[in-house]
């Protein structure tokens, strides 16, 4: 059976069928307008009760587990949420899921007002902090930039990761067909790339049904939903495993890389599959042709910077500076290996390693779809992403 051959559902697959209770009036239920709804706009007590619940503790445990897995989440990427009685707790923008059991990384949101804003296309849906429940937001954090996406999904728990196996499929031009083949029996829906935020939430709404629990986001990642955190995680792990190809082996940098880095601000990257990418000319040609997912653009900059055949790190950085570019955080030396700036943040290092992991899972015969120049520019100029970069710098500082 091939890496992307369709599988027939087994007993564990069938266990993820949507319960009957989840099929009725999804938006009404999660907004709290069915039984158990909360009247009035003071939801702080409700938010605190949910924070103290076993369901919230379970969400934090799953969040931390996913956040500690670099094949699922890199740095501050990904987000998770829990809804009940008109309140949604969601990961704060710029925080790390890996910290979910050790620090306060979740923000409570007034779900009813947010859903109304999304439906009306209001600007506040792009600024979810305006829907945060301030009295229960102890650290004054901003909700995730993808809060609207979580709000339009009806299930109590939603998990979103930047799974490398998923990205390696989601950047393909035939991604929709691969998703249908590998995940069709799980009811998966493919949504072509749309910038994260309100536009993505609307794009998802246009494609899903009330029973949709699994979404592959083009050039982006994976979304799994469920009745509880364990349910959603099981579905996410199964989807990830089905999409994963046997990754290419890692490699050590060529000894000559150190010569090219001498006297520079760069060191060899601690990422064997990134070195393998640098030493694979066919794969490097594909990956250097553009940027393929948002967090690459946000933390590594557009595209992949490559040194010339005889360039050292200082001369390559000087050449790039002449075109108005800052020294790239990641610099590829074709045939030799990959280098990263010594002052690179933990998030930057995580996204550099992610590039190698995605490249190692590419189907060499599948055409890929890179982000357009306009899509890259929209991410680089987005205030919400500038905020994440600011928090990233503060974390390492």
Automatic annotation (TrEMBL):
Residues 58-243 form the Class II aldolase/adducin N-terminal domain. SUPFAM superfamilies: AraD/HMP-PK domain-like (SSF53639). It comes from the Bacteria. Keywords: Lyase, Metal-binding. The keyword Transferase does not apply. It holds the Pfam family Aldolase_II. This is Class II aldolase.
